[in-house]
Design a protein that fits this description.
TIM Barrel; 12 strands; 29% helix
Amino acid sequence: MALVDRFGRRHNNLRISVTDRCNIRCVYCMPATDVQFMPKSEILTFEEIVKLVRILVPLGVDKLRLTGGEPLVRSQLPDLVAQLSAIPGISDIGLTTNGILLAQQAQDLYRAGLRRINISLDALDAVKFKEITRRDGYEKVLEGIEAAREAGFDPIKINAVSVRGFTEDQIVPFGHFAREAGVELRFIEYMPLDATNSWEREKVLFAHEIREVMSREIMPLVPIATGGQQESRSPATDYRFADGRGIVGFVASVSEPFCESCNRMRITADGKFRNCLFSQDETDLRRLLRGGAPPEAIISAVTASIADKWEGHEINTARFVQPQRPMYSIGG
């Protein structure tokens, strides 16, 4: 049995949110104040997460990514990584983090079996960083990047959200950073997943515009052929600077949707299964787990959700409806 939807897409990539809590307040993600987090009793335990993964591995799940909120605020996260990496059939475990707590945890995470890490960083100066995140911590993120390098993570990927009228001044600095710091940079188009429902298409700084600026101000970007450095079914389209130094990827969810090759599914911190980031429907796996449901019932619920997955997110149509949950609550 495999997790295949009605469009023939095979799903093997599971993103697991371990918390909805975060230690920053990015303007495109969270409210500035009065954030309502889930009670601890509603959050899946490590034991429950491991149990779900064990149930789903026979369906072809072999790639995991731990997200939040900010996953590193979850106590003892390396213990969960160690338990997941020990599950037969799991070939890849990644983590997406804002990096503020990474310097203290990078070595333990690597020893536990984590090998792939994405660090969210939207600006390369402390003032702009605080403007975006509403918190201090820029130097801590840089320390986290260096700690990840020393721990052995390679490649280290930097995720930068691009917002028109806000982050254009970071394009060229990030291009030089990708060339000089030995990291892979990924620009992510601003998506309608903010807590204040203030997203507008006019605020999206499109991938092709960023490529044009980099090619003009630094040097031309050349596409990396699929099958080489380009990850199979990756949402990012990767480019290399013409002289071979520096990789820049683009996750163009709005201007160049990749729905037709999507292999992703998600479990929220409170145990809800989502077949798409933008889904309006969820399947309550926590209720099944805590109600003593057999593995077959969980498999049936997940299989039914995947079978019902829509063709695409429809951001570019009048039919689009923004999910009720913001990004930090769904899981990055």
